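Researcher: Last one for today. Full complex below.
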Amino acid sequence: DTGVSQDPRHKITKRGQNVTFRCDPISEHNRLYWYRQTLGQGPEFLTYFQNEAQLEKSRLLSDRFSAERPKGSFSTLEIQRTEQGDSAMYLCASSFAGTGSVGYTFGSGTRLTVV
Amino acid sequence: SQKIEQNSEALNIQEGKTATLTCNYTNYSPAYLQWYRQDPGRGPVFLLLIRENEKEKRKERLKVTFDTTLKQSLFHITASQPADSATYLCALDMRSQGNLIFGKGTKLSVKP
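Model: Here's the assembly. Have a good evening.
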């Protein structure tokens, strides 16, 4: 297991188009998170799954955003009708949820540019 | 309102010195606090976590303190090296939520 993988690394799209990103977490991890990061800011929480259940969504996540994690394995994040404000680095992370706090393992991210 | 503040956007120090980064928060009661390192164009990498009932945690040249009264964590890198140059992020684990809440980060530059 080589860590958390994200695909693609970069995506340039025209405003109004739909885009989909994929995340493959560490196989032993039961939690998967999506964050968004813009230049000079820290990662901003979007949503997370425990196994296949989506347990929380940020209020920042508009109706244009949808995430899935079928069978509790990989996850996809789709953005419909992209806007220039969606340009950011989209980060996926995974962890094993136990009784205490654990560090997240992040992927290298997908950089989205909406033109 | 709830805020997480990391003391400065950028910190420049000389190689061999100790770097001290600050994370302050208001209107949160985290059960844990975590620190991450992020290099340009990469995802954050987990470094250390500290529990609310722990005062200090160490790992090699890294030391973290956590003062729940002051609502502050300090992150120290001793004998700093140019390879330590990166952005360092603090993150709060609220336990009541399933996700971490991140600060903006401090960009550390260690000059030879």
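The first strand of chain A starts at residue 5 and ends at 7. The mean pLDDT of chain A is 94.
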